[in-house]
Amino acid sequence: MGNIKNILFVGVGGQGTILASKIFTEGLMEYGYDVKMSEVHGMAQRGGSVVTQVRYGEKVYSPLIEKGTVDVIVSFEKIEAARWLDYLKEDGTIIVNDYEIRPVTVLIGGETYPENIINELMEKNIHLKTINAYETAKSIGNFKVQNSILLGALVRACDLEKINWSEIIKRNVNAKFFDLNSKAFNLGVNLK
């Protein structure tokens, strides 16, 4: 438990980014890690960026992550991966949802959505795991569980499968959606 790990959750309002980071944080605390979490979701309800910083280890003194020190970025929307890339450390990992949410500025024609974001990320010297969480979530009945799929992929990337995630998910989601979220989480953990 010695080294501090820095995880950055980035997405767009309404994607469940904060819920995923809350579940992740709670699981880490139950396992005995010291955890600090900081979130920014200013315009999130209007489709704006949502960012949560999670730091965990034996002893963590600050919730804030400096540029160039993130171990894993979990990007719920692919343009957010590019936007936060400068926070990733040299041997860091990005888990990116190959999913687009076009901002209002693009929808009204003021800007264009960047093409080939995934290809540009692949050209960087980073560990990249691309997941189509939208299609995977849709295949099990509800596209809204993309966050649980991405959370599962993060848990695997951080080698944290030994934590009782099922119990933590159960405490944090509505009982009628527990089975669906649990299934989505397990799909994320088992994605190759």
From TrEMBL:
Tree of life domain: Bacteria
Keyword Oxidoreductase: yes
Molecular-function annotations in GO: oxidoreductase activity, acting on the aldehyde or oxo group of donors
Domain Pyruvate/ketoisovalerate oxidoreductase catalytic: 13-189
One Pfam family linked to the record: POR
Alphabetized SUPFAM superfamilies for the sequence: Pyruvate-ferredoxin oxidoreductase, PFOR, domain III (SSF53323)
The entry's keywords: Oxidoreductase, Pyruvate
Entry keyword Oxidoreductase: yes
Name of protein: Indolepyruvate ferredoxin oxidoreductase beta subunit
Organism (species): Clostridium amylolyticum
